[in-house]
Specification:
Blueprint (H helix, E strand, L loop, with lengths): L2 H14 L9 E10 L4 E3 H5 L6 H8 L3 E3 L7 H16 L8 E5 L10 H9 L5 E5 L5 H14 L5 E8 L19 E10 L4 E9 L7 E3 L16 E3 L1 H23 L8 E4 L4 H11 L10 H4 L6 H11 L7 E9 L3 E9 L8 H31 L22
The structure holds coenzyme A.
Length: 406
């Protein structure tokens, strides 16, 4: 390819970003659901754990309380319950799903992926499943990927989940981080349609040079014989604050430019809920009043990948996000990563059918039986399929593969 035309191609790619393929397939959000643990941890309780105050936390972050998962729950069980609600809302069966993407910053295991556990528990027997790690921007990355799969004709129905048990990777002695985060999950179901609308544009960014400002080692040693590493989240709050205050407005403007729209064409902006002062900085950067932003940080803190879907679902429930509204999702996180997405919320909730609900519930029971049978078959296979002794190994249950799903 000649140098000139290569440059033109690059320019065109930059201008277009991810705006659909133009092949008449659109990715619509047809189902949504959230799950938050019952246990509320208030600022007053944190006051008794570290040297801080309710007043300081509210003033510097906007957070009053957050939810904490109890020991029966995992990142997978929270995500599973959010996913079931989204499938019910979409009136789809798990076997309709082609792909499951779980965005999480606090998976129970390095592998297998949380998505595999959820796929098994849902009985989504036709779906591929994987986890995506882009920290708190993960949900935007995952929805963008899901939409691209649908537009390209590679999938008709995709389940996207953002789910976290961040309380398990926090250092509860570190007052600069333990006050910020909470647990929870949210899910979207995206489906193919020939009707224009749904996910219209997205921008995704990364700057790995800022990776050391927010990280969690999660048990990976620095060398094969090195000592076990800390698992807790480590953060340089001021650096992250400066970066976030800059990129939220920038990414919103960028995605609007890509979609050929102005800020006044947007009805609601749903930002990642990390700190009220960061959202206020974004509002100033965009010269918008705060009432154009949906905020629920006061009750949940920062739930990382779950923060945006939890806010979307609450915005719908409170009538602040309505059918045919134009919506911008914008977020940032460790990586450093950031991104934004423009969605036409042209969804009309599908009519509930009690028969379908009953069939779905039966399917979940069957999924459980199917999973047990598959485990049993593996045991039988190990007995009857004689391999050379030195390659034999014993499969054990995953240590945290909890059974509880409701
Ligand atoms: N309670 C009381 N005082 C606290 C405190 C707490 N929980 N945490 C920090 N402080 C103290 C500091 O020790 C410091 O004291 P000093 O002046 O005596 O040294 C003082 O408050 C100011 O600290 P600073 O870090 O400048 O506070 P801040 O205004 O930047 O607020 C954050 C701290 C963490 C709330 C803020 O930086 C932030 O939100 N950053 C972004 C983090 C984020 O969004 N992370 C997730 C990304 S997805």
């Amino acid at each position: 390819m000649a140098a000139n035309s290569e440059t033109q191609v690059r320019k065109r790619m930059r201008r277009n970003g991810r705006q659909g393929t133009g092949n008449g397939r659109y990715a619509h959000i047809v189902g949504w659901g959230i799950e938050v643990p019952e246990r509320v941890l208030s600022n007053d309780e944190i006051e008794r754990m570290v040297e801080t105050s309710d007043e300081w936390i509210r003033d510097r972050t906007g957070i009053a309380e957050r939810r904490i998962a109890d020991e029966r729950d995992t990142t997978a069980t929270l995500g599973l319950r959010a996913a079931r609600k989204a499938l019910t809302q979409a009136n789809l069966s798990p076997r309709d799903l082609d792909l499951i993407i779980v965005a999480t910053s606090s998976p129970t295991h390095l592998f297998p992926a949380t998505a595999n556990t959820i796929q098994d528990k849902l009985g989504a027997s036709r779906a591929g499943a994987f986890d995506l790690l882009a920290a708190c921007t993960g949900f935007i990355y995952a929805v963008s990927l899901a939409a691209a799969h649908i537009e390209a004709g590679m999938a008709n129905a995709v389940l996207v989940i953002g789910t976290e048990t961040l309380s398990r990777i926090l250092d509860w002695q570190d007052r600069s981080t333990c006050i910020l985060f909470g647990d929870g999950a949210g899910a979207f179901v995206l489906c193919a349609s020939e009707t224009p609308g749904g996910v219209r544009a997205s921008v995704l960014h990364s700057d790995g040079s800022g990776g050391d400002h927010l990280y969690a080692r999660s048990g990976v040693r620095t060398s094969w014989n090195g000592p076990p590493t800390e698992q807790s989240l480590v953060m340089n709050g001021q650096e992250v604050f400066r970066f976030a205050s800059r990129v939220m407005a920038q990414a919103t403007e960028e995605v609007l430019e890509q979609a050929g729209l102005a800020i006044d064409d947007v009805d609601v902006i749903i930002p990642h809920q990390a700190n009220i002062r960061i959202i206020q900085a974004a509002a100033r950067g965009l010269k918008l009043p705060m009432d154009r932003f949906f905020v629920n940080i006061e009750r949940y803190g920062n739930t990382s990948t779950a923060s945006i879907p939890i806010a979307v679902v609450e915005a719908v429930e409170q009538g602040q996000l309505k059918s045919n509204d134009r919506l911008v999702l914008v977020g940032f996180g460790a990586g450093l990563t950031w991104g934004a997405m423009l969605i036409e919320w042209d969804v009309v909730p599908s009519a509930r059918s009690y028969l379908q609900d009953a069939l779905r519930e039966s399917w979940y029971i069957l999924a459980h039986v199917r999973s047990m049978v598959r485990r049993l078959l593996r045991v039988l296979e190990a007995i009857f399929w004689k391999q050379p002794r030195d390659t034999q190994h014993r499969a054990t249950r995953l240590p945290d593969d909890k059974e509880q799903t409701d």
